Every structure is written in C-alpha cells, then in structure tokens.
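Appendix B, record 7
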Amino acid sequence: MRRKLLTALLVAVAWCVGFAVVAAETTIVFWHWNREDRQAKLEPLIRRFEEETGIRVETQMVPWEELPQKLVVSLAGGVAPDVTAISSDRGMALLLQGFYEDLGPFIAQETDYDFDDLLPNALEMWQSDDGRQLAFPFDLDVLSLFYNPTLFDAAGIPYPDADLTWEETYDLAKRFTSDTDGDDRPDQFGFINGFMVWDTLVWSFGGELLDPTGTTHALGTTEARAGLEMWRNLSQDDVNLDWGMAPTYGYPTPTDAFGAGRVAMVPIGAWGPSAFWQDPATGEFIVDFDVTYVPRSEQHERGIPLAGQGLGMVAASEKKDAVWEFIKFMASADVQEVSARDLGQFPVLRSVAVSDAFMVPGQPPANMHTVIESTLYARFHPKHRNWPDAWSRMRTEVSRFVVGSASLSQVLQTLDDVIPALLSR
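Structure tokens (predicted):
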C-alpha cells in the first residue's frame, strides 16, 4: 500500500514538474498602445504574472491607430501576436471578420473569475450580434465633460452640472472663445470636440443611427438633423480648437491647450487627465479641472457611446490557454486597481470603480462619481456585420457638411444612395 502511495506521489510530482516546464517554455506576445511611462505602471504586475504562472509575456507597443493594419500584415507574414489590445472604435471590423478567437467557450468553462463583478454591459459590448464573445473588456470609455473651474470663476459663470444642455454649452463655448492678447485671433477657446463624435448629439436630440430595419441610415429625421446641426456649430473655429489648428497656437494637440488653461470645456474619457494633464515625473496635475455629465438636449436625455479597450485572443495563436490566463489576469482586481489609480482608466470591475483606486481621495476631479453614473446613458453602436464600413462612410459624408463643402440635404442624399448597399453586402 505504501509503495502504491509512493508511486502515485512520484507520478503527481512528475506531472507538476512537467507542467511547470511547459509553462516556463510558453511565451506569448502582447501588443498594446500605451506610452512607455504608462506601460511602466503595469509591467511589475505582468512580471508577477510570469512568476506565478511560468508564462512569459513579451509586451510590444504598437500605436493605437496602426494596430489593426499591422495585425493584418503580421498574420499574412506568420508573425502575429497572441493577444492584443483592441479599440472598440478602431478594432471592431477585425473582430467581426474573424481575426480573433471566440472567448465564449473559455468563459463557459471558467470557475475562478468573478464575472458578477463586471460592470453592466462590459461583456456585451464585445459580443457580436450572433452571440460570439469577440474580446474581453479591459477598460471602459464613456464621455464626460471636463472643464476648467478657474476660467469659469474668472468669467463669473456657474460650473456646468447635470442640467447643462447642448444649446447652453454652445452659448458658453462662444462666450469663452476670445482674443485675450489683441492679435485679432482667438487664443482662448470654449470647446474641444476632438474626442467625441456626432453620434452623441444625434442620440441626445432623440435621433438614431440606423432605421429600425437595419437596412439604411436614420439621419434624415428631424431629431437626427438637429443633432448634426449642433455638431456643425460645435466644430467651428469660433468655439472649437480644432486638432489641426492647435500647432499654430503652439500646442501639439488641443488637449495640451486645455492643460495650459486656454480651453474651458472638453468632452473626453476618464483617461484624459492622466494622459494629458499630469506630469509623469511628479504625478502632479498641471491644470485645474473638474468633471460633470455630458450635456443633454433641451427636449431629450443624454446619449453617449459605450466604448473602451478590450483584450482579444488572436485566432491564429497556438497558445490559447496561456492567453486566456493572461486576459483574466489583466481583468483582475489587482491590475484594474493600478490601471484606474495610475492610468486614470475606467475599470470594468464594479468593486474597483467605487473604490479609492478610481475615486482617489484628495485628487481631482472632485466629481468623479459623475463618470461612473454616466454609464447609465451609454449605448452601443449597431452590431451589424457591415456597420464599420457604413459608419466610416457616414462620418466621411457628415464631415463634408461640417466644413461647408456640402449641405446637409446633399449629404443625406448621398447616404441614401450608398448606405443600403454597404449594409447589404
């Protein structure tokens, strides 16, 4: 009997050692788009993951705007990563085209991860219309209205709050845009629209993006047209510091102008302050700011897209079990706390979102709770397989209206002609 127990013990030890050897020899490649100083906050945690699992993670930075195309090229060349960060804005087309593994079977077999702690809609955001789980949530991105209290105080204007409408926002933006140095051009601006799109305004004014049948656009309604008109107003240089114009004022981006105290309001995600207005060396914020809800229209409620960053398992990976372990780790409380506290990212776990890691005591913005509450107004874009192409064309055509090269009626006629074909392909 003792011999049988000893034999069984030796077999078990041999199995464990064998597993450790296999794990130690497993290396997965992870593509992300974090700046070096931001990724440095996560690297110690990733090193701990390696020690605990024996799975080595090779992290590689790929610019956000380049990642989708580079993934296609890497797959063609047989050098694709195993797991990537995915932008809900830039990466959805590849998700729907099958470049990533369905995580549904992994989720169905999972026994350790607390899925109940995920914020509502976090998983659903990454599901296809046929129920495939195309990615796993890492952070959320919902628009909130950040503002400069110093500028509001100087102008004697009450701070924006839950009652602020888009109509009032436009009026405020015009009041704050001014020439303070007498050179006959504005050097202080009321608004930055570079981190929002007109879907927010269409929804806020009661419109929709697609008609109920899902076969064409819905931008011709009175409500949607009102939202597009407001988008055009908020995009003009008498209120808005355009991305392309910022360098002419000495700022690399409009958000740097906000950081210099030259912009009153900017809709942006919770990640904005740490990405643009925090000194990486000292951790101090370089500008006074607070946050409130994105405005609503006078007749309707708010409407903002639920966006964010996901983690996708590349379908071509031969190390899917190791990748799943890494994805779970990145969505764990330990990593989510660091991401929230040090990177300003909106965590996907409810327990972290309401903790001091996200709402850091004594650190701006004072009204961080409004960011969490904004998820109540968040909506999905249509989950149509051809939606990315249709959305791209809709944005292109609406931009013609914004810059004045086409009337809204002309834009809508073009969309009437092309969108049904794009959606039916």
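Remarks on this record: The mean pLDDT is 91. The chain has two domains: 25-139+308-370, 144-305.
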